[in-house]
Structure prediction request, 145 residues.
Amino acid sequence: MRPMSRRNLDELYAGSCDGMTYKEIEEVYPKEFEARQSDKLAYRYPRGESYMDVILRLEPLAHEMERTREPILIIGHQGILRILYAYFMGLKRSEAPYVSIPLNHVLKLSPHAYGCNETRTCLLTKKEMLEDGQDEPVTSMPEGG
Prediction:
């Protein structure tokens, strides 16, 4: 397997809010925060992207992945992984922003005639992560994982 870097796998660009936490966005741009909360799929950050923009950006890559017959390993940000997961699992676009992609896990999707089989492997449990000094952000990890 040869490594490749793909620009269309770049993280969703948050524009004017880039580098800010959700708490900071809520404090500095309360109207933007509320707009994103009400429609996470279509909301576009000021001078940034929406999930819909990223879906369009990833579509050619998803088609290329479907044609590939060798194993593919994708390491990416959660938003990107949510979109690709939703695509290959046959979920609605509106579900993509809410797909659970836990930290420190490998998700293996094995395509078959009518969808994909999924296997999740935990690489580092929440307890191990806390013991290792990695205390942020453990809230996105399942308790048992």
